Amino acid sequence: MDRHTLRRVRLCLWTVTAAIMCLTVVYLNVLSEGKTRVVKRSLLELDPAEGTAGPDGKGGEVLFFNMVPKSGSEMLVLLISWLQGRNGFRHYRLPGGRAGNDRRLSSQRQEEVANTINEIQSASTVPTSFDRHIYFTNFSSYGYQNPIYINLIRDPVDKMISRFYYADLKKRKEAQLFEECVAAGAPECRFINGHLYDLAIPYFCGHEAYCSQLNNRDALERAKSNVEKYFKVVGVLENLNETLTVLERSLPRYFRGVQELYFNELQTEMKYSKNKNNPRKMKESTRRKLESSLKLEYDFYYFVKKRLLNQRRWKN
After folding, report:
1. Phi then psi for 128, rounded to 5 degrees?
2. CA-angle at 105, arms to 100 and 108, nearest 5°
3. Main-chain dihedrals φ then ψ at residue 162, nearest 5 degrees
4. Pick from 181, 209, 186: nearest CA to 196
5. Longest Cα separation, the chain
6. pTM for the full model?
């Protein structure tokens, strides 16, 4: 083989080697992209024609009840638990959230919750539902598909009264009226603008500090926006009939038969906890003072109530 032929052979081999290297890089990039999580749309954003089952035909649909405390949440969870066998889904109670300081989470802990739900749902052959006291968490921030959110709220002052007497049963040695607590200016009965509180708005706004600040306008607007975007139904305890109707008609996979179950079984048996002996009446002036302190909580309450009643009319 002469020198010129040898040079041509070497050039050819170099070209082939370079091509193989390029193809290898491309292939590795494809593999790498395949491992990257794709941020999926919320289940509420999926077109109904696409369905909610996974690619293998398994469950796929996820419902998340991020419960606002002292708003009828345990009653609704009991109904969901009873309905799971009838309607062919599986309900899970997530750990945590029982203490007030375990509802606003760090980014890492939010991701852990999203990952836990994703793992359980992925292994399930039926639709799944979950509940926990936790502020709104945007699963897409961690590469997961957002679940279908639901929640239940109540009149802000009534919620505070219920929480006060619930704590009274657990902690206080001597009975105290809520009105006396307000008059005394006790920390648990006093609301100061800008201070952080575990009220309703954070459960729809999120884990940022401003979401828990009393009467923060940005928190209110974000909570309203998230309700419209992520929450299929937000019920109102004072409008329980309308709430159950909208739940059953909007999410029949989970709530088919809920009205019959509530009125024929739960309401008659009264199996959910209720402290009947707690006084609830107070002076009108005291109530007006509290309503003024919780101004934006009431703004949010009436926004949710109007939305619920509109949904009730649409479903008709």
Report:
1. -125, 155
2. 155
3. -60, -45
4. 209
5. 110
6. 0.80
Structure tokens at 92: 């899970």
- Distance (Å, whole) CA 118 – CA 114: 6
* Rounded-to-integer distance, Cα 64 and Cα 130, Å: 5
State pLDDT tens for residues 283-314: 899 999 999 999 999 999 999 999 999 999 98
- pLDDT tens by residue, 19-32: 444 443 333 333 33
